From TrEMBL:
Signal peptide positions on this chain: none
Pfam families: Exo_endo_phos (PF03372)
InterPro entries per record: CCR4/nocturin_mRNA_transcr, Endo/exonu/phosph_ase_sf, Endo/exonuclease/phosphatase
GO CC annotation terms, alphabetical: mitochondrion
Record's protein name: Endonuclease/exonuclease/phosphatase domain-containing protein
One Gene Ontology biological process: nuclear-transcribed mRNA catabolic process, deadenylation-dependent decay
Start and end residues of each Endonuclease/exonuclease/phosphatase domain: 222-567
Gene Ontology MF terms in the entry: 3'-5'-RNA exonuclease activity
Length: 577
């Protein structure tokens, strides 16, 4: 159809018959907008003047109004074939109406974990994230073995009676003027629903998986190194795991999600989170459960994993631009003097003396998240004396067993930055959690909890003078075990005494007893994962029971079919005072 509404045809076919000599026959069309009648039928409303309509006019009106095209065929005399004037071939329709659907609602993409190839476990949410075009809603219907089991919900949790059945979805994009009929798309998952393997930790923590009471004012915090899939793929340290499928991300990560959701934490701090796992699995699911989250990738070359934090919007206000609260720890290393932080100035002097150490620190891409979480008014209650904001810090420190001096410098940098952020709020408290790759009895934990590290404490001087980092990771991460060295010292420098300022809060462990183990792989057992809190404003109420080494040895070591990571999740309840 041309814009002027006319089109002449040299040869035409109508009702399957060719009309010879139709050069003078003329086809005219008109377009009408429609309106619903009282009985909901579409009625002709107004006729367009096609000569005055621009393409933009057509597009704008077509997005909101149903249209109909009317095509009229008029026969004119043709002397060559001797047709009579206004004579129309018998049985030929001269007016045809076509309903025009412009910009019909459709799906441009459908995102889900592992693109419909992930494992489907009973009790583990499956979330679809459809991307729509010309639609304001997508109706998602779920089918088990062809039977509708859930209507209009992007999330489905398989039930016991779904076990062994196939799962499929039908998605219907809809708009204000279109029901989506004829626009549906269907997808089938490649795996059948199966029972979720037993989780040893959840089995030992039943009271931490019960539904929390509505009047529970405690703040539940979880920290968990979930084991990066990137690191898992590059490591040969997990050959003992049986079956091998237990290590595959499509099997392992849904089990991680299942455990984390079970604790119903108000704040979730995760380490070793792959960027694509955050984007395709964790963030969509937690958003569906009314959490806000932020991911911070490590700044090391070739690394696509980092830290992720989620907080419940039922307990805390939404945070605008949470990404601005993420920092590369190397950017926090002292570059200028600070009169309030004497230890900071001592490290600065050491780095001026040791450019090799400065270079190593700038090579490392570790990150920290320091998100100010403001308690919702209804979550805080009427007690205005309580802190209104929690500075929640999540981090993952350097792993190397011979680098205690680097972890102390990282801990000092975290302490100073968290203190600067804390002072920006009138009533704020502090929580630091994550994988410290060290016990609290070592130098880094000593600095944060005792506020002071003595000159050359423990193996600080040896590590400072002998450590060389080539960027190559040892087969087993051993962050607490000191290895005896026979090589001569490369340098002969002292690691200085470090003292935190009096204004910095006194931190205590949120654990009632020092855990025997939070990380267990063949050849190494250590307590590396911690939650520290400001003792002046936060009281640890209780913590989830921690497993013994015997508990974790059921399947040789971690991870396993019953433990989805090589670290133990740490969960605590805190009370504001």
């Amino acid at each position: 159809l041309q814009k002027n509404g006319n089109r002449k045809n040299k040869r035409s076919k109508m009702n399957g018959k060719e009309i010879k000599g139709a050069a003078n026959n003329e086809a005219r069309y008109s377009i009408w907008s429609l309106r619903p009648s009282e009985d909901d039928r579409l009625m002709l409303d107004s006729k367009w003047d096609c000569l005055d309509k621009t393409l933009r006019d057509v597009g704008n009106e077509a997005e909101t109004s149903p249209l109909v095209a009317q095509l009229s065929i008029q026969f004119r005399p043709d002397d060559e074939i001797g047709q009579k004037v206004d004579e129309t071939p018998a049985g030929l329709k001269t007016e045809l109406n076509f309903l025009i659907e412009a910009n019909t609602p459709c799906l441009s993409a459908v995102r889900t974990f592992e693109d419909f190839d992930g494992c489907l476990f009973i009790g583990v949410p499956i979330l679809l994230s459809p991307e729509k075009l010309f639609a304001n809603h997508v109706c998602v219907d779920w089918y088990c073995d062809g039977v509708l089991v859930q209507h209009d919900n992007p999330c489905y949790i398989p039930k016991d009676n779904d076990c062994g059945k196939s799962l499929a979805v039908v998605m219907t994009p809809q708009s204000a003027v279109h029901s989506g009929a004829g626009c549906e798309e269907a997808f089938r998952f490649t795996q059948c629903v199966e029972a979720c393997p037993e989780n040893i930790l959840l089995g030992s923590r039943p009271e931490w998986t019960f539904s929390r009471a509505q009047d529970d004012t405690n703040i539940r915090v979880l920290t968990y190194n979930i084991l990066s899939d990137q690191m898992l793929s590059e490591s040969g340290s997990y050959s003992y795991v049986k079956p091998k499928d237990a290590l595959r991300k499509k099997h392992r990560l849904p089990r991680v999600l299942h455990e984390v959701l079970a604790y119903q934490a108000d704040v979730i701090c995760l380490q070793e989170v792959d960027s694509h796992i955050f984007a395709k699995l964790l963030e969509p699911v937690f958003r569906h459960y009314n959490y806000q989250g932020v991911f911070t990738c490590k700044q090391s070359v070739g690394t696509n994993e980092g830290c992720a934090m989620f907080w419940s919007l039922d307990r805390f206000d939404s945070v605008s631009n949470p990404e601005q609260n993420s920092f590369a720890i190397r950017d926090l290393i002292p570059q200028e003097e600070d009169s309030d932080w004497d230890g900071w100035n001592k490290i600065r002097e050491l780095l001026e003396k040791r450019p090799d150490l400065q270079q190593t620190l700038q090579t490392l891409g570790h990150v920290t998240q320091m998100v100010p979480l403001r308690l919702r008014v209804d979550a805080k209650g009427d007690n205005n004396a309580l802190p209104a904001t929690i500075i929640m810090c999540n981090t993952h420190l350097f792993f190397h067993p011979d680098a205690s001096h680097i972890r102390v410098i990282q801990a000092l940098s975290l302490a100073r930055q968290s203190d600067r952020i804390r002072k920006q709020y009138e009533k704020a408290t502090l929580v630091i959690c994550g994988d410290f790759n060290s016990g609290l009895r070592n130098a880094g934990g000593e600095l944060l909890m005792k506020r002071r590290v003595e000159k050359n404490s423990k193996n600080l001087q040896t590590d400072l003078n002998m450590f060389q980092y080539d960027g190559i990771k040892p087969q087993v991460e051993d962050a607490t075990q000191h290895q005896q060295r026979e090589e001569p010292l490369q340098f002969n420098d002292d690691f200085p005494t470090l003292q935190l300022p009096d204004t910095y809060p006194t931190l205590v462990s949120a654990m009632s007893k020092y855990p025997p183990v939070t990380h267990f792989v063949p050849g190494f057992v250590g307590t590396l994962d911690h939650i520290l809190v400001d003792s002046s404003t936060l009281v640890p109420v209780s913590n989830a029971p921690m497993p013994t080494l015997e508990d974790l040895s059921r399947d040789t070591a971690m991870p396993s079919i019953h433990l989805p990571s090589d670290h133990v999740s740490v969960v605590v309840d805190l009370r504001l005072i």
